C-alpha cells in the first residue's frame, strides 16, 4: 500500500513566458484545501489588477483526490486543463498553479493558448522544490492510569508520534502513525479491552 505522495515545499517565485507580446506569469503554491487556494488566487488578482486572465488548476487530497480547473474567460479547455495536465505530469497533489495573462494585442489561437498555459505551468513547477510526504493516520486513545505502561510500550515499539497527551485519572493520548502501519497498531490497541481508540482523520 502506497503511503507517500509528492507536493511542493513552498510557493515559487513567478516565472515568465512570452508569446506574441502576451505575457504569462506562472505561480505554484502548496495548498491543503479550497479556502487556501482561493486566498492565493484573490491575492494574485489584487497584485495583478491590470491583467486580463487569472487561470488556474489545483489538485487536493492523497487518497480521494479532487481537482478543479478554471479558464477565466479563455476558450474552453485552453488554460485550466493544460495547467492541470502539468500538475498530473509532475505527479503532484495539494498544489495550486495559477497563470496570470497580460494580453499583448495579438490573438494566439486555441493551440497557442494551450501551449502558453502548459509551458508557463511547467516552468513554475520546474522552479518548485518538490518533496515527498508520508500519509498518516491520527488516533485518540483513552485509558485508565493503570494501563499507562502498556500504552508507553506500544508507543515506543511503533515509534508513534505523540500530538497531545493528558494524564489524569482518565488518560488521553493523540498520536500519528504511517498509514501502512495503522491497521496493525489499531488491532493491537483494540486487543487491550481497557483501551478506547478512535480514528481522528477518517
TrEMBL record:
Specify the superkingdom.
Bacteria
Task: List cellular component terms (GO).
Answer: cytoplasm
Pfam families membership = Impact_N
What positions does the domain Impact N-terminal occupy?
20-125
Question: Cross-referenced InterPro entries, in alphabetical order?
Answer: EFG_III/V, Impact, Impact_N, Impact_N_sf, Ribosomal_Su5_D2-typ_SF
Q: Which terms does the UniProt entry file under GO BP?
A: regulation of translational initiation
Q: Which family does it belong to?
A: Belongs to the IMPACT family.
What name does UniProt use for this protein? YigZ family protein
Q: Specify the species.
A: Paucihalobacter ruber
Lineage, top ranks:
Bacteria, Pseudomonadati, Bacteroidota, Flavobacteriia, Flavobacteriales
